[in-house]
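re: ur question from earlier - yeah i can do the single chain one, its not a big deal. heres the input i used so u can compare w yours
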Amino acid sequence: MKIAFHFADTEQAATAHSALKAKYGDIPIEDADVLVALGGDGSLLHALHKTFDHPMPVFGMNRGSVGFLLNEFDEDNLIKRIKAAEPYDLHPLEMKAYTPDGECHTYCAVNEVSLLRQTHQAAKIKITVDDTVRMEELICDGILVATPAGSTAYNFSAHGPIIPLNADVLALTPISAFRPRRWRGALLPHTCKITLDILDHADRPVAAVADFHEIRRVKQVHIIEDRSKTLTLLYDPDLNLDERIRKEQFMP
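and the output i got, formated as tokens:
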């Protein structure tokens, strides 16, 4: 088995990489069968982005702070663990962000696409789902669309729902909604097309972010799930990620 490594820029991850490289080697990603990510959930996210150009499964091991979506770290039996691992397939979001001059910026997001106000003034956003206007005006700090994989990240911090990885839904979650004050978001079928129009975009500028790609001063954003791209995460059979996600929903 040919292994490539992606590791965080931390001493802990670098030390782990050195030990694993000595045992298993480390080849260029274009020649690898599997990508092993070392770090936290952010490092796993960057590793998954690498597989857009070099499709292969990703086996993550926690050498970071949270590591909710990673396996436990162990230097031994890595190849055996990878062969026995259970796969979870993910589909990223595709974001098309339009600026006032008509330029379109297209990026993919594994976790979420988020819209964030750029100034002291709240953003005003119109929400359209499958060509039907669902909300004429949301006054807020922002809004995000999260995949199941990203539902435990920024989405959860914004009081959005945790979604099991095998659920075919997306979370549409407001960030500090001011009006309507009690709106907490929506769960939408993964097949839907979401359009977010920035009202008063000249005076109330908004940035659009797909994972770590940011476009500032956008006018309109289209978001769909891109089923033409499949990303695969590998997990130890005894990890039971589904049970971990269930427990997270009942934690105080």
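The chain has a mean pLDDT of 94. not sure if urs matches, ping me
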